Amino acid sequence: MELYSTKHISPIVSLKEAVLTGLPPDNGLYVPTKIPKLPSTFFDSIEEKDFREIAFTVGYELLQHAVDKSALKAIIDDAFNFDTPVVPLEENIHVMELFHGPTLAFKDYGARFMSRLMKYFLRDTNKEINILVATSGDTGGAVGYGFLGVEGINVTILYPKGKVSEVQEKQLTTIGGNVTTVEVDGNFDDCQHLVKTAFLDKELNAALNLTSANSINIARLIPQSFYYYQAYAKLKESGRPLVVAVPSGNFGNLCGGLLAQQMGLPIHQFIAATNINDVVPIYLKTGIFQSKPSVATISNAMDVGNPSNFPRILAIMGQDEQAVKNKIHGLAFDDDQTKKTMKEVHQRFGYTMCPHTAVAYLGLKTWLSKNQQPATGVLLSTAHPAKFMDVVTPAIGKTVSLPPALAEAYQKQKVAVPLSNRFDDLKAYLLSK
Ligand SMILES: *Cc1c(COP(=O)(O)O)cnc(C)c1O
């Protein structure tokens, strides 16, 4: 497998280099030079395969010998050791629950696959690798848990003191093992700045082999294509065209879907559902991409004003803007609509959605009501509602109970290293470890 940069300045690289460096030096994004097509026989019997078998077949075809067959099988079996259920909700609407991993959000798919792939590519070095990551809440947990117990790799997570939710702080500060958490006296921008400065610091890099676990690493994108096949496998018998609604922020999840579709997965229509951070829905309507400052909403994991995966959407679709506009329908919803939807879905079906999932449900319902043709709809549920109980509980008027993984985190003692937002303090701390 080879990858090029969307800016076309940096050279073409192997998967190993793309995964270990994260970003090309020209600051573009890595995209596969060739997207292989799966044989039609694969789709003829896909419903007989389980999620891990599907992931392996698709992954092996896409990675093309970059990873040894048995190693890839082991990586996939170990990374996806949890369920990916597709639950019926109402006539023609299903929910694919992507929150059964350790941090109860879909980012577990990307983080767990990336960590194991990195370990594989580092198997011949006996150097210890240090991952440094800044988080505003969700990513840190997924990366920390993704690398938990992965030998030879240590993780340091930086989060802004007092600026993450209670649930998020519990998750971030109780991981343990090879994962250390630093509570920075500052905001998320300070955390990000500290990480960027650390990567530029020669002394620190020489001493610690710093590596990023960047959210746009291609290793996080690839596994996000696997579960779209799962949706198709589970819903194939309906015989109707498949419509998939994706709650979107940085658009990594949707890129996974487009990758699957380009490999031959029959997806009739994608719905990119956003909150009022609607840069992409506006682009899909007008053809003009204009980033803007992000606005805070209750679906805060989608508060992105400049979706960094946008160039990848175009690249995966072969720069065919018309194809992008035909394949993806963009719809944006505000917080009032989201709250009302959480409440109504709970009342009508007894099903509790996180705010991001509710945005996707709104997108799917809106599309289905406007398009009279028969279709089977599936929406991606990106987080367990308990992760966002501060907004879900008042919306549905009922307390969301804690799933076991969270209840366990609540039992544990918070462990975090307090630091100022000065780089010298972070550097001294990292060197002293
Ligand atoms: C990250 C995240 C999203 C947005 O996914 P993108 O790949 O950034 O579009 C949606 N919902 C939840 C719960 C998330 O954590």
TrEMBL record:
Residue ranges of domain Tryptophan synthase beta chain-like PALP in the record: 83-373
Family, per entry: Belongs to the threonine synthase family.
A molecular function (GO) term: threonine synthase activity
Superkingdom classification of source: Bacteria
InterPro entries xrefs: Thr_synth_N, Thr_synth_N_sf, Thr_synthase-like, Threonine_Synthase, TrpB-like_PALP, TrpB-like_PALP_sf
Keyword Cytoplasm: no
Enzyme's top EC category: lyase
EC number(s) reported in the record: 4.2.3.1
Pfam families from the UniProt entry: PALP, Thr_synth_N
Cofactor: pyridoxal 5'-phosphate
Lineage of source species: Bacteria, Pseudomonadati, Bacteroidota, Cytophagia, Cytophagales
Name of the protein: Threonine synthase
Keywords attached to this entry: Lyase, Pyridoxal phosphate
Ranges of residues in domain Threonine synthase N-terminal: 4-80
The organism of origin for this protein: Agaribacillus aureus
